[in-house]
Amino acid sequence: MSEKKRMITGDRPTGRLHIGHYFGSLQNRVKMQDDYDCYILVADVQALTDNFENPEKVRKNVREVVMDYLSVGIDPKKTTIYIQSMIPEVAELTVFYSNLVTIARLERNPTVKTEIAQKKEIFGESVTYGFLGYPVSQAADITALEGSIVPVGEDQLPLIEQTREIVRKFNSIYGEILIEPEAVLSNTKRIKGLDGNEKMGKSLGNAIYLSDSEEEITKKVMSAVTDPGRIKKDDPGNPNICMVSYYHNLFSTKEEVEAVCNECKAGTRGCVACKKQLAKNIIDYLAPIREKRKYYEERPELVDKILEEGTKKARQTAKETMKKVKKVMKLDYFE
Ligand code: TRP
User: Fold this and answer.
1) Does ligand 1 have an atom closer than 6 angstroms to the CB of 24?
2) What is the average per-residue pLDDT within 124-139?
3) Could you read off the pLDDT of 320-330 as tens digits, one per residue?
C-alpha cells in the first residue's frame, strides 16, 4: 500500500483549458504528483447538469481537457485520469447520499446559489433536481475514491464543506467507513482576462487557451486592453492599469518588465511594440505545451488508452468502497 495521501480533483469538460487554469490549478497539480497519490476526474456527468441539451459538447471536450492535462505535464504514470460517468458506483453512491442532505441545505450552498442565479436562461424559475444535487454527486466522486486531499479554487470550498457534512452524517449513522476529505486552496493566483475582467473565461472571450496557435495568441494579445488615457504613441502611459503590463509580469523576465514599464511611463514605447514583445514571450512560454499537445492530438488512441486504464483503476477503488458501503447499509444481499 502506498503511504502517500490520496488527492482527488477534477474539471467539468465544457471547454478547452486556458492559461487561467494553468496558473490557477494545473501547475499545482503537476507539482503534487510526486507527493500524493493523484486522481483527476473528467466530470462529464456534472457537466451535463447544466449542459444536458448539449451531449456532443461534453463528449468532445472530454478528450480536449485530457489533452490539456497531458500537455502541461500531468503524467499518467503518476496521476490516474478517469471519466466520471464510467464509474457507475459514483451514481449509486449519489443516490444513497441523497437521503443525508436536505433540499434547504443544497439551496443554501453559496456556490450552487450563485450558479443558479447565473443560469436563469437554462433553468428559468425552477432549477433541475440534477443541478441542485450536483454537490451530492461531487461528494460521491471524492469519497468513492477515498480522496483525503482536494485541491480546488475558492469557489469550490462550499462544495467540499458539503461533502464533509455528508461524510460525517453517513459515518454517524452507518459506521465510520468514509474518509472526511480536506480542501486545499490551489488558486493562489487568479489570472485576469485580456479585457481586464477579474475572471478569464470562455464565455467572456478574454482567454488565451493552452491549445491556441501562435497566430491566435498574437491576435488576442493585440486586442488586450491598455491604459485608456494613452491616446498617442508618445503619451506617457500607466502600466498599472494596462493588461499588457499585467501579462508581461507573468511571461517576461524581470529585466524586460522593468524596461517596458519605464519606457511606457516615459512615453518612449508604443503599445504595439509592447504587445508584440508580449505575444512573442507567451508564444515561447507555451511552445513546449503546444508541442506536447500536438503529439497527443496526432495519437487519439493513446489518449483513449490513458483514459481507459485510468478509469479501470479508479473503478476498482470505487467498487471496494461500494462493497463497504453496502455492507454497513445492510444492502449486501446474496453475499
Ligand atoms: N465542481 C468541479 C468544478 O466545477 C469539478 C468536480 C467534479 C470536482 N467532481 C469533483 C472537483 C471532485 C474536485 C473533486 O470545477
Assistant:
1) no
2) 96
3) 999 999 999 99
Q: Sign of the C-alpha dihedral, residues 226, 229, 231, 236?
A: negative
Verify whether ligand 1 is closer than 6 Å to residue 10 (CB atom): yes
- The pTM assigned to this predicted structure is 0.95
At position 125, the amino acid (one-letter code) is: E
Question: Separation of 308 CA from ligand 1 center, angstroms?
Answer: 20
Read off the pLDDT of residues 221-278 as tens digits, 9 standing for 90 and up. Answer: 999 999 999 988 889 999 999 999 999 999 999 999 999 999 999 999 899 999 999 9
Domain 212-293 of CATH type 1.10.240.10? yes
CA 137 to ligand 1: nearest atom: 9
Distance from C-alpha of 164 to C-alpha of 25, rounded to nearest angstrom: 22
User: Looking at domain 6-192+300-328, which of 3.30.70.260, 3.40.50.620, 3.30.565.10, 3.40.50.360 is its CATH number?
Assistant: 3.40.50.620
Give strand pairing partners of 83: 42
The C-alpha cell 452524517 sits at 169
